[in-house]
Amino acid sequence: MSIQIFGLPVSRGVAIGRAVLVASSRVDVPHVFIDPTLIEEEVARLYAARDVVGAEFDALKRDLPADAPAELAALLDVHHMLLQDEALIGAAADWVRQRHYNAEWALSAQLEVLARQFDEMEDAYLRERKADLEQVVERLIRSLGRGAPLTLPETDRDSRDFGGDEPLVLVASDIAPADMLNFKRSVFKGFVTDVGGKTSHTAIVARSMDIPAVVGARQASSLIRSDDCIIIDGDAGLVIVDPSPIVLEEYRFRQRQSELERGRLARLRHTPAVTLDGERVELLSNIEMPEDADAVLEAGSVGVGLFRSEFLFMNRGGNLPDEEEQYDAYRRAVEAMKGLPVTIRTVDIGADKPLDAMSSSELRHESVLNPALGLRAIRWSLSEPSMFRRQLRALLRAAAHGPVKIMIPMLSSVREIKQTLDNVAHAKRQLAEAGKPFGEVELGAMIEVPAAALTLPVFLKHFDFVSLGTNDLIQYTLAIDRTDEAVAHLYDPWNPAVLQLLYSTISQARAAGKGVSVCGEMAGDPAFTELLLAMGLRTFSMHPTQVASIKQRVLRADTRRLAPLVPQVLGSEDPEATCLEQFAAATGATHLPRFAA
């Protein structure tokens, strides 16, 4: 019987495939595809962990005190029996061989299968044994964590290499940033998560992968079973489980239409982004790693508007990158862009991008309370000046190889501005004293908290350019946690207060002769292209996959006709409806897309 599950649409398109469940666990479970040549080695690792845990159970039972309750020995016997059951270990080995899961993931996947069977048992005593099974699996996973390091997945492989003839889609309660990085160039054709908002980390990465995704789907991971056939409708925020043949064929037709549209947009790659009235627009790209630079050039972007440097700092087991490693990464990105400008943001950790190297009690404390308002981004950098200057030195050295701009996240006060400038000057002196070559850079500030937008003249006095980080600006203006599905529906880019801050920032920067861009999700959403152009924005930065659709709207826009409509939009109680009505009339379009990402 078909099931429909509704969530938040965060990445457009349609995905059809077999469900792969990433189970929740009380211990961290790495999710990695194993190279086919190492499958039997991974199976052996699984059985070795079983032997280790079995020996632990034997030792525990042997060392029980003479007066210990008999139930304890019986419980250990139950755990030992579950451990030896081929329905657990043998089936987990099958997951490794058939789907190429790593051993930990295979165990958690099989735990989901067996847990459902326990839940369906009529006998109350047997149902309670599910907890014993969970404890055994947890001990196995912990044992595997002490074993050999995992083999990272081979990327760019077709999903059919990992079991079955159909594509795979990922279903989870939530997906950790570490797993998202592992999956980024892997085999999944779509994502579904129980939690998350439109600008949560999972949503942003799904859009960067240009694959359909639905988040905040509540009970999706408990309603969907492994290998279920599911459809992800990333436009409507709909997940269909076990669709009927008619529905399946309808969505396959939509997939084919989408591919044709992508082909048409691809032909715009080398067309300059110029409006009908001759206004030249810069379409830049956001990247996360140096290797992403190739996609920027392929998309026809004229530079990198945001290089998120924090991805060099994450998933490193507590070891921060040194100056040489950072310099090498930044240099590779700069050289790969072949003379086009690269804007690199200093490390922006916290909130939905926690850093595993954050070890102080203060950082651990803030991450539990409210990470979005805690010691994050520039606040953390200024609290760790040696780390900050190490990154600044690497950035300055990379600037010797091509045009580099440095962008500082989450600045909110004159004090932070002056501390930042002092650190930049100190880093330059250190390089000069060491005789290391470095280049001149433009220095910019991200405008992503209302305090910065409301005191913009101070920022324009000290910085060469500003960039609007709309994701956080909306979050802080509306006091909405953008990663919390309970309030995600209140996250509204069309809120009049948000639009007023955008317009004020763009207008003041242009009047001061300073560069201004938008590098948040709004830059890549076609629903906002005409409005941002009308406000005076001429520099957009987005994921490379979004460039073609935004360029298409730029080429069709006439800013002379659009600009006079801005006061009507800003003065409206329903800016989205006003924008749709007024801009559609001005452009002659029958409709403009509503915000869906």
Taken from the alpha-carbon principal axes, the silhouette is globular
Radius of gyration using CA atoms only: 26 Å
Please identify the oligomeric state. single chain
CATH C-level class of the largest domain: Alpha Beta
| Number of DSSP helical runs | 24
Structural class, from secondary structure content? alpha/beta
| Distance separating the two termini | 30 Å
Q: How many domains in all?
A: 3
The side-by-side strand order for the widest beta sheet comes to 1-8-7-3-4-5-6-2
The major pleated sheet works out as:
8 strands, mixed
For CATH, the homologous superfamily of the largest domain is named as Phosphoenolpyruvate-binding domains
Helix content: 40-55%
Strand proportion: 5-15%
CATH architecture call of the largest domain: Alpha-Beta Barrel
Q: What is the CATH topology classification name of the largest domain?
A: TIM Barrel
Q: Can you describe what's shown?
A:
The structure is a single chain. The radius of gyration is 26 Å and the shape is globular. The protein has 24 helices and 16 strands. The longest helix has 24 residues. The protein is of the alpha/beta class and 597 residues long. The strands form 2 sheets. An 8-stranded mixed beta sheet has the order 1-8-7-3-4-5-6-2. It has 3 domains: 130 residues, Phosphohistidine domain (Glucose Oxidase, domain 1, 3-Layer(bba) Sandwich); 110 residues, PtsI, HPr-binding domain (Enzyme I, Chain A, domain 2); 320 residues, Phosphoenolpyruvate-binding domains (TIM Barrel), CATH 3.20.20.60. Helix 3 packs across helix 4. The relative contact order is 0.10.
